[in-house]
Design brief:
Number of domains: 2
Number of strands: 11
Number of helices: 6
Shape: globular
Distance between the termini: 41 Å
Radius of gyration: 17 Å
Strand order of the largest sheet: 3-2-1-4-5-11-10
CATH architecture of the largest domain: 3-Layer(aba) Sandwich
Oligomer: single chain
Bound molecules: S-adenosylmethionine
Length: 227
């Protein structure tokens, strides 16, 4: 199991449903202005945002590097693939990367990713993504939590230092009378806004810092494809 698949298996225990809904509402209202017909959701997770956009009449495709996430999308009948964005066929009116997806990449990977995003946009296409602010890492994400239900017990331990958040996930899954232990670490990277200015394929047209929790923890970034 990859570290992203382990994240996928723990997500329902993290208590992020309300924050996810708030993010979906924000993206939906931003996209409303652009009257898009096609959408690519990169890092689509379980496909919740695609479900909402499909109900608004938008043709959606989702990709995610976790096969666990993609299988859940497919089980709902969504068009989803476990591939890198560089391998996506066709182009789209809009692309989104919702809930920290850009923070999963270090700077080099991020720059390549953003180049690939630009090549998958139609002329005048729009790309919207959110990133964690320093407060998002130090006040919200850092720390330890645990959660459990009848079949699972999860411990999450996150430390933020040198602009990197190292989060260790330890999941015990009950199987008959035994517990199976899964443990892995995900690294998330803080990115400065200047990383997103002067990109060759994308022009940053707006940025908004907002609070999902009690502090200014996220920045929404809106880009247009450069002509
Ligand atoms: C915090 S989850 C958010 C999922 C979904 N966007 C949502 O809002 O529910 C981040 C997702 O990004 C995926 N991911 C991380 N890096 C990725 C990449 N380079 N390309 C595609 N998906 C990626 C992870 O597997 C995970 O499903």
């Amino acid at each position: 199991m990859t570290n992203l698949d382990l994240y996928a298996k723990t997500e329902h225990l993290l208590g992020i449903e309300e924050a996810t809904e708030a993010l979906y509402d924000l993206y939906r209202s931003e996209l409303d202005e652009y009257k898009i017909k096609t959408l690519l959701d990169v890092g689509c997770g379980r496909g919740g945002f695609m479900q909402r956009m499909i109900s608004d009449g938008v043709k959606c495709k989702g990709i995610d590097l976790s096969s666990v996430m993609i299988e859940e999308c497919k089980a709902q009948g969504l068009d989803a693939e476990c591939i890198d964005v560089a391998d996506v066929e066709g182009t789209y009116d809009a692309i989104v990367a919702i809930f920290d997806v850009l923070n999963f990449m270090n700077k080099d990977a991020l720059v390549k990713f953003l180049d690939a995003i630009s090549s998958k946009l139609n002329d005048d296409g729009i790309f919207i993504a959110d990133i964690n602010t320093l407060y998002g890492f130090s006040d919200v994400a850092e720390g330890t939590m645990s959660a459990e239900n009848d079949k699972e017990f999860l411990v999450v331990d996150a430390e933020f230092a040198n602009d990197e958040l190292h989060t260790q996930f330890t999941l015990f899954e009950k199987n008959d009378n035994k517990f199976i232990k899964h443990q892995d670490t995900i690294i998330q990277y803080f990115h400065k806004i200047k990383t997103f200015q002067n990109l060759s394929g994308l022009k940053l047209i707006d940025k908004q810092t907002f609070s999902l929790y009690d502090t200014e923890d996220k920045t929404l970034l809106i880009f247009k494809k450069r002509q």
